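Q: Hi! First time doing this. I have a protein sequence and I read that you can turn it into a structure. Is that right? Here it is:
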Amino acid sequence: MFQRFFALIAILLITFSGLFAQPRIKIIPGTTLDLGDLYKGQKGERVVTIKNVGNDTLRITQVKASCGCTAALLKEKKESLAPSDTVDLSITFDTQNQPGKVTKQIYITSNDTTEPKVTIQFSANVLEVLKLNPPYFSFDNTKVDSTYVKTITITNPSKEKGIKILTVETKFENLKVTLMKNTLMPGEETQLQAVFHANKSGTAQGMIELTTDNPMQTKFDIKVYSWVNRK
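A: Yes, that's right. Below is the predicted 3D structure, encoded as structure tokens:
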């Protein structure tokens, strides 16, 4: 009698333990991150820890970033976590084409039924050592055998430090550029003049490459576009 009773209790305990076995995902230090101020061209990096705080194996099935500017990689490619086990997630944010205040997301999918998709959200403030107005040269609706002149205003947005533009190199066919002033004190501006002679029809793109004495952004690219019509 007692043997059957204890056997029944054992079966029930095993059954209930199986029913209540559940993986639980936890992100350390949390799902909201602030990468602070970054200069354009820098890479913001942060490492978070994924921990299984449940009592069954946690299986990570997907880690996906909201855009191509962000990489999220599990270290050691460890996708299964036993209870209390952890794995680091390396997050890298490329600021190259992300000026100003930005917010991005990383999605982690797992077999945690209470929270099958966890969102990590991070923010950053991407600064530029130079501001351009307009941000690029566009020679649209031009004609063959004609010459066009356009100007970009370059400003030093810093309130404390001056900046020197060391070189200006054009990498666009039939384009000549002239920088009016190469040393800018805080808040000062100068003009970059571009003279484009259209000698053939079609579309093209290239860039003007600036180098500066600011160690946070020694190279600065200005994009150039053209759309030349036949006569």
